[in-house]
Amino acid sequence: MPIVFARVDDRLIHGQIVQAWLPELNVDEILIPCTGKGKELVNTGLLRLCLPYEYELTVLESNRCKQYIENSAKNIFLLAASLQDIMPLLEDGLKVKSLNIGGMHFKKGAQKLDDNVFLDDQDKRLLSIFKALGLNIETRAVPNAKSISLEGVIP
User: Fold this and answer.
1) pTM metric for this prediction
2) Distance, C-alpha 128 to centroid of its chain
């Protein structure tokens, strides 16, 4: 599989991605999966402007990502805005070894895990499913940051 790195960050492409993660990863492309009307809400043109020219950007409905990835020869950085955007890929059988949680900002009823990570009950349920599927789940804002443990948070 050409997925080099998978991350959930509700900001999508921003300074930490461009300045910290991309120089550390050997990727050719950022793939953003979207569920439902999410693809209509993603401003692909604006995201393209944020991304250095040497990286490609693809935004697809989540149900089209597995086939796209399987047919790609590129090294892919899978970048989702939410855990809900990752779930359909796993349901389709896409194999992801690890998932980085970079930014899931405050929402009503969410528990603070870190400055940039707040988890509500649905997030915890999805992370529990991901863990049961064998995904290594970590939280780091940037490559050299210490990962925050999810022990005691994920049932």
Assistant:
1) 0.91
2) 16
Distance CA 30, CA 75 (A): 9
Given the structure tokens 């990502």, which residue do they identify? 65
Residues 6+ apart with CB under 8 A from 56: 28, 29, 30, 74
74 to 21, 28, 105: CA distances (angstroms): 17, 6, 30
Q: How many angstroms separate the first and last alpha carbons of the chain?
A: 29
Q: How far apart are CA 136 and CA 130, in angstroms?
A: 8
pLDDT score recorded for residue 37: 59
Q: Which two tokens stand for residue 146?
A: 């210490």
Structure tokens at 41: 């809400």
Look-up: residue for tokens 């300045």? 19
Q: Measure the CA–CA gap between 117 and 55, rounded to whole angstroms.
A: 27
Share of the chain above pLDDT 90, in %: 61
Look up residue 97 and give its two tokens.
């070894």
Assess contact for 113 and 139: CB atoms under 8 A.
Answer: yes
3-state helix, strand, coil in the chain (%, to 5): 35, 25, 40
What tens digit of pLDDT does each residue of 117-134 get?
Answer: 889 999 999 999 999 998
Q: Six-digit token pair at 82?
A: 């939410």
